[in-house]
């Protein structure tokens, strides 16, 4: 299979123009750490962003960083950490879950809207993404957004590209707003709650003025023989002491909360972020999004239909489910459990045959499918970018 690795944006545009002229289907890759995600590839060649690397903009005082799409995520994070700053949305590292290798890239973070536990406080990756450059399917270089949040006219291509999974264009450069690293991080832990009571506690804490940056529940057997309900708070040390005390009083009816800090706290949240509890198993893994108060009912319905394990993030609004990868990997049971409550299910990990046979992303209603097809036709008229990665024909 042919492989392209341009060293600059103009070279990338020329490769795309030539590929378009012969309708050559391209699989877009960065560090290639997420190759097992999405529908199986239907490509004839790879187009890599690895050669498009390097920091292009860093203004610590303005809290803005820009980098070419192939820049390793670790390089961006190290640069920011050196100035006491961070990406706000805590992107997931998929390598443990998917059994992949390589280096995650900053472009892939934008392309899949990669967002972790801090999303409940800081928003998703797309909320911090303020500028993009990309090559569309005609081989044209497009720039949208800039160094400030309000720099949009007409169609917001920045938000459109975030989460498009490389189906609309090759990202060549991205710009993000960043945040300061907090002085202190601590996790309040409640033990022994069932799913319903845990989500009730998380919702009470999230509805308080005490500002959580993480809210997760690990049922018994996921991380420990006891169920653990986790609430992360960050800030100045005196603020942590005050808020922890107030949260303990607020949540007294749920039991006595212990305070965990340092490496023990960080290890818990890394495992939540990366779904590390499900790494190294042969199970299929699903990512379900719904209203937080519906999470326990959805999980219970899945548990009645088939053997499964799960845990909750985003206060109960995100449910990560592991189940047998045979047959449809639980697709029918999971989407049936979701149907009364709304929400979406994405198949994150499963064998190729399963990902080819069942919808990996939530099926779209006909009006939304027409909109998606129209956007694909407008940006990639020949259909050369990641064909079928999200939906047939897209």
TrEMBL record:
<dbReference type="GO" id="GO:0071949">
    <property type="term" value="F:FAD binding"/>
</dbReference>
<dbReference type="InterPro" id="IPR016164">
    <property type="entry name" value="FAD-linked_Oxase-like_C"/>
</dbReference>
<keyword id="KW-0274">FAD</keyword>
<protein>
    <submittedName>
        <fullName>2-hydroxy-acid oxidase</fullName>
    </submittedName>
</protein>
<dbReference type="InterPro" id="IPR006094">
    <property type="entry name" value="Oxid_FAD_bind_N"/>
</dbReference>
<dbReference type="InterPro" id="IPR016166">
    <property type="entry name" value="FAD-bd_PCMH"/>
</dbReference>
<dbReference type="InterPro" id="IPR036318">
    <property type="entry name" value="FAD-bd_PCMH-like_sf"/>
</dbReference>
<dbReference type="Pfam" id="PF01565">
    <property type="entry name" value="FAD_binding_4"/>
</dbReference>
<keyword id="KW-0285">Flavoprotein</keyword>
<dbReference type="GO" id="GO:0003824">
    <property type="term" value="F:catalytic activity"/>
</dbReference>
<dbReference type="InterPro" id="IPR016169">
    <property type="entry name" value="FAD-bd_PCMH_sub2"/>
</dbReference>
<feature type="domain" description="FAD-binding PCMH-type">
    <location>
        <begin position="1"/>
        <end position="181"/>
    </location>
</feature>
